[in-house]
Amino acid sequence: MKLGAYRYWHETVLAALIAALMIGAAVVDPRFVSWKTQIALSSHVWELALLAVPMTAIIITAGIDLSVGSAMALSAVVLGLAYQAGANAWLAAACGIVAGALCGTFNGLAVAWLRVHPLIVTLATLAAFRGVAEGISLGRPISGFPASFTVLGLGTIAGVPIAGVIVALIATAAGLALARTPSGLSLYAIGHNPAASRFSGLPVARLTVALYALSGTCAGLAAAIYVARRNTAKADLGTGLELDVITAVVLGGTSIFGGSGRIIGTVLGVLAIHETREFVGWHWEHEELNAIVVGVLLIAAVLLNRLFTRPTR
Amino acid sequence: MRHLAVILAVLTLAASAAAVAAEAGAQITVALLPKKKGVAYFTSCAAGAEQAAKELGNVTLIYDGPTDGSPEKAAALIEKWTLKGVDVIAVSPNDPEVLAPAMQAAMAKGVKVITWDADGAASSRSFFVNQATGTQIGEAMVDAMAKDLGTPAGKVAIVTATLTAANQNAWIAAMKAHLASAYPKMELVAIKPCNEDQKVAFQVAQDLMKAYPDLVGIFGISSVAFPGAAEAVKQAGRSGQVLVTGLATPNAMKGYVKDGTVKSVVLWNTRDLGYLTVRVARALADGVLIPGATSFAAGSLGSKPVAGDAILLNNLLVFTKANIDQFDF
Q1: H or E element that contains A232
Q2: In this predicted model, what pLDDT tens digit does every residue of A143-174 receive, in sequence order?
Q3: In terms of pTM, does the model score above 0.90?
Q4: Which of A15, B71, B76, B182 has its C-alpha lying 20 to 30 A from A287's C-alpha?
């Protein structure tokens, strides 16, 4: 078990896998690995990446948030309705983000104070948020946002997508917060043993509410980016996204039982899913393959994790 | 290691061979995007498209689409094809609003974009390959019912998708007009939605038979409403007394056609729709099809009318006991 002494085995292996994929892709079709192609394809990953960051922290506390896709849809619809009601598109986006934060706060309160298991709470809100989104939008799409707003989803700064810069900043901040701040570190303790954490004086309830509220806020931000990119706000967007997000987090090495995980792993997990999907789609032109490949990838990652890390539970 | 080297060499060769073929000029790549992949209706369209590509000999056809019907995935496919530099993208938009930005971006990059099966925003495509106009579809269903009844008289009702469905509403308008002018003795007594739920369609048809005991016919004007209504009539034991007709794929209706609940099923030839789409794509890439054209030579389909920016397939099929077994989709 000497291998377990090195803490970053999972990340190293994932990075090697991604590198191998990209080298293989470069051989098969050099166009795929070109900067231009990669930048253009990256627009498909920002929402997933953005939601995977708070999901990592939540899963570290042995929680889960299944409602992120639905919260994103509700935020998008609020954004759309606010814009339709005459608000400036940026103000409308702020309304959407507030709606997302409220969704998350609701989840957090139910988990922390009602002591309902997060799986059950967010399974309920997964259905409920989407229902509200469909109800208030009447299922109608809202589009026609100004170009000054769509820049959030399509624009670049010095060749780098604006949405990508936002996601990178948030991921970096979250990574530092998790690894370096007392609140961040206490999330691992909560994941290992919530009762002990509570008795040792950690503000478990407060941290939990804050965490789910952050997840909702990120869903609101993801909604703004999506609406800006597709120029459409609709109640069915983000359907099934929660499963992709959880897959990326688990692939990145975060234990689904809580207590361990890192943002860098999640970033690599997101990257691995994204590049694999895009390359499979690019090369074989069969959408059916995508689901299979991501499933195989997940199982492979779990097996790798078993090989390279000491079982903690 | 040696094996790897061989594999890499072969892959490189294959890649360069593909690159050479693309430079030959005449060869084009056409991407055909269905609303949802893995559905019998679209699979049969793809078979026709495949046939056209084979006939033409200089078209590489890509048929791919979201297996879950997700508009986001459809948009991502359009973006991918634009990056890969395909020549023509033919879209059956599962969500015109979501797909429009990606389609417009493709056009801005010089890709020819057309719609088929269902239309999108006019600004997001150059031509629309339309299976039939709303008037043609509405009239074909009314004519089928009149013929099935023998004497076109009595109370009829419509089970539609939703009350806001644009396609269905256009057909209903055409059906009303055609009933009034050609069959004044047929009386349309009710139009009920089934919200695209077969169980609801079943229930609605049962209610209609109770509310109008002398009902002679039900139109099921979506692929969900039609089998639902037929099942209700069949279970009520009134096959042959209350005739059901409408739009659906033949495979879904074969059982009802054979037991006499349904005499006619109206649909266009889906294979021909795929075939025509690829022919249009080829002509567009060659610059043969230009705005203002009034007809289009569609290979083995002959000449097809062009109305504005829509190429019409104009070939509605009526499936009956006699011919339904020849169709498998």
Answers
A1: strand A232-233
A2: 999 999 999 998 999 999 999 999 999 999 99
A3: no
A4: A15
